[in-house]
């Protein structure tokens, strides 16, 4: 018997799946919602233009608040590379943030370095440390890995506290030198760009954040980003299809650490002066991880939403005085319980279900023919 194939249904090109993320056959230049790169570039440009236009009318309190949100969104987005996309519970962000901040502040205040030199030195030192640490720490997994990386942040804090000749110890140091010597904080100079006021730092951090998000949206759909996600989802399966799991983890850790250090250079100058207390474990290691998890690990906008929750909620409930911390903690607990995938993760899951509901089945397509 001859079976006719003239009416066989035509299937669309297959999709490559990696965990919760789906890479459609349209290529790497679309995001998971189908937005082309040029559309994302237009949106990014509008965000930058709006920030520059509207930030000039902000008062000092609002400028500081939005600057804080932008700074921690940058830190959390950098951490998201290793935590969200590579699936490694990393708590070493405090050490690398302190590294960048102290190099930046020392470079400007004591050695009169231009901004690009501080960024270069901070990035290279962070790269060297992260690669060396990566050879050792990834022998541990899960909670053991988290404990080891937590120890790295605690060591970084104690180095900043005890190395008084360079860091100023508990008294801190400013971009004009040690606080006890007085002086005015110097601006951050990067070629023709000079950042000397809080509004300048706000605009700069928003621009850097937009660029980072655009780059991440492309990177996670390239071979390197897909290898991170495959490692996160199933290391054994990833290795069986040719992913070099150990190398994948190390590259994600190094990329995240370098970015956090570079952000630290800008962060230190924005603060004007820094103390070891600026980089204690709770502030510089735990809170960025909380931002990633609450907003949605492995999502592009999750760290921004997490920063808004972690930084914005205390400000929102500040009027409750003694009860503000209690309400804030209860809301965080509620978010984690209701949305274990994070706020953005829940939105994305709902969006995928809606799209699947609207997508016609193969039987319906056949009937239409």
Quick overview of this protein structure:
The protein has 369 residues and is mainly α.
Give your account of this protein's structure.
This protein has 369 residues and is mainly α. It has a single domain (39-364), classed as ABC transporter involved in vitamin B12 uptake, BtuC (Orthogonal Bundle). It is 66% helix and 5% strand. It is built from 15 helices and seven strands. It has a three-stranded antiparallel β-sheet with strand order 4-3-7, with helices on one face. A hairpin with a 2-residue loop joins strand 5 (188-190) and strand 6 (193-195). Helix 3 runs antiparallel to helix 4. The longest helix is centred in the last third of the chain and has 27 residues, at 245-271. The protein is globular and about 60 Å long. Residues 1-26 and 362-368 have low confidence and may be disordered.
Distance between the termini: 24 Å
CATH architecture title = Orthogonal Bundle
% residues in beta strands: under 5%
Which fold does the CATH topology refer to? ABC transporter involved in vitamin B12 uptake, BtuC
CATH class: Mainly Alpha
Number of strands: 7
Q: Strand order across the biggest sheet?
A: 4-3-7
The share of residues in helices is 55-70%
Radius of gyration: 23 Å
Q: Which structural class fits the helix and strand makeup?
A: mainly alpha
Number of folding domains? Answer: 1
Question: What are the segments in which pLDDT stays under 50 over at least 5 consecutive residues?
Answer: 1-26, 362-368
Overall form:
globular
The topology string of helices and strands comes to EEHHHHHHEEEEHHHHEHHHHH
């Amino acid at each position: 018997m001859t079976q006719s194939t003239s009416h066989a249904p035509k299937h669309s090109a297959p999709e490559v799946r990696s965990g919760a993320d789906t890479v459609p056959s349209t290529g790497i230049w679309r995001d998971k919602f189908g937005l082309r790169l040029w559309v994302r570039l237009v949106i990014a440009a509008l965000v930058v233009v709006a920030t520059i236009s509207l930030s000039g009318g902000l008062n000092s309190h609002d400028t500081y608040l939005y600057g804080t949100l932008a700074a921690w969104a940058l830190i959390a987005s950098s951490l998201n590379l290793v935590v969200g996309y590579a699936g490694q519970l990393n708590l070493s962000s405090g050490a690398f943030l302190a590294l960048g901040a102290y190099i930046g502040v020392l470079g400007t205040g004591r050695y009169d370095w231009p901004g690009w030199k501080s960024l270069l030195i901070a990035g290279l030192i962070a790269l060297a440390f992260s690669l060396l640490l990566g050879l050792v720490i990834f022998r541990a997994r899960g909670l053991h890995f988290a404990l080891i990386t937590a120890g790295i942040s605690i060591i970084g804090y104690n180095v900043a506290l005890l190395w008084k000749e360079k860091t100023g110890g508990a008294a801190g140091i400013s971009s004009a030198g040690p606080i006890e010597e007085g002086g005015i904080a110097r601006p951050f100079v990067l070629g023709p760009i000079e950042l000397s006021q809080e509004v300048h730092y706000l605009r700069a951090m928003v621009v850097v954040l937009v660029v980072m998000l655009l780059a991440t949206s492309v990177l996670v759909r390239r071979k390197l980003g897909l290898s991170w996600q495959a490692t996160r989802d199933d290391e054994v399966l990833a290795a069986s299809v040719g992913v070099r799991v150990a190398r994948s983890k190390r590259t994600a850790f190094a990329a995240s650490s370098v970015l956090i250090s570079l952000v630290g250079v800008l962060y230190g100058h924005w603060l004007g002066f820094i103390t070891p207390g600026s980089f204690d474990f709770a502030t510089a290691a735990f809170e960025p991880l909380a931002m990633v998890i609450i907003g949605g690990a492995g999502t592009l906008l999750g760290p921004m939403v997490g920063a808004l929750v972690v930084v914005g909620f205390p400000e929102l409930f500040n009027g409750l005085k003694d009860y503000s911390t209690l309400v804030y903690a209860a809301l965080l607990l509620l978010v984690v319980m209701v949305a274990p995938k994070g706020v953005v993760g829940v939105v994305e899951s709902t969006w995928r279900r809606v799209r699947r509901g609207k997508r016609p089945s193969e039987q319906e397509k056949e009937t239409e023919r």
